[in-house]
Amino acid sequence: MSVYHSCRKFAQVCKLASAKAATDLRSSNRHAGPLAVVCKHDVRFKSSGERALQERQRAHMARGLPKQKPIAGVKEVIVVASGKGGVGKSTTAVNLALGLMANDQSKRVGLLDADVYGPSVPKLMNLKGNPELTDNNLMRPLMNFGIPCMSMGFLVEDTAPIVWRGLMVMSAIEKLLRQVDWGLLDYLVVDMPPGTGDVQLSITQNIPIAGAVIVSTPQDIALLDARRGAEMFRKVNVPVLGLVQNMSVFQCPQCNHQTHIFGSDGARELARTLGVELLGDIPLHLNIRETSDKGQPVIVSSPDSPEAEAYRRIASAVVRRLAEESR
């Protein structure tokens, strides 16, 4: 017998068996009531089975993720992030750390530069050198302006490009998180790299984060990426404390005319759309740029200036939002 005829005969047998089963079922019970009950129980069994399968899948996925472990000695971690580079994130992170300490001298604040490929904290905080090691083989942060700092920039040459693949970057982040002797800190401000990639996910999955501050200019193209950054933190259950609108307005030093170079109130509108707070506005001011390039942040070098006051107000808003999130 050919394969064709074998398959055809098998199909006919299956068809006859199916017809016979249907006839037997109708003859044994002519009412739909009991059959409906059987079907209902079958659906219930199937849905409960699906739920059990989903629970097993979630448990399996959870086992694959690292468990969050607090950084020894650190009470609260604040991450400063942006959707794209060039919006003043690092300058904001440095002045936020200094502003937290300036508002309350009893608070101990640290600064971690997690931007592995483009570390800016050494320049902004006027720090050079290699960290020393403790007896426990932990790195001691470098200190300036009363702020202990750690950065990949302390471990490589100033001009050396960091051309690492993902695994090496993850290893570096793990060392910056776990192999640093921070002492006792009330706040650790983390300058995150721009974007929403591996480093951001690795940090949020490894340590508990009290809240995220998103920095953006009012420009539409920057706001698109800032929104992605905020949504990423929400997906990984990190509270978004609010947005900082950087370079919001330029005031001419000669005639005091104000120009909105990057747009007007774009971050304020985004904050309203996301349902988060606008923590404050930072002007586009020559004083901020000059003091940052000199390694003398504006809060330290010009503490009575309007620019320094703007950063201190943002620091106060961050502390308030942290208190609200902890309730």
Describe the structure.
The protein is of the alpha/beta class. It has 11 helices and 9 strands. It has helices spanning 3-28, 32-64, 89-103, 121-124, 166-178, 198-206, 220-235, 266-274, 286-293, 298-301, 306-326, and strands spanning 74-81, 109-113, 142-144, 147-151, 185-191, 211-216, 240-251, 258-259, 278-284. Strands 1, 2, 3, 4, 5, 6, 7, 8 and 9 form a 9-stranded mixed sheet that branches. Helix 5 packs parallel to helix 6 and helix 7 (220-235) packs parallel to helix 8. It starts with a helix and ends with a helix. 36% of the residues are buried.
Feature tags:
9-stranded mixed sheet; 48% helix; 17% strand; globular; disordered N terminus
* Quaternary structure annotation: single chain
Continuous helix count: 11
Radius of gyration: 29 Å
What are the secondary-structure elements, in order, as H or E? HHEHEHEEHEHEHEEHEHHH
The assigned structural class equals alpha/beta
Largest sheet: 9 strands, mixed
Query: Mean of the pLDDT scores?
Result: 83
Low-pLDDT stretches:
2-7, 13-18, 31-46
Strand content: 15-25%
Helix content, binned percent? 40-55%
Shape: globular
Structure summary, number of beta strands? 9
The span between the termini is 79 Å
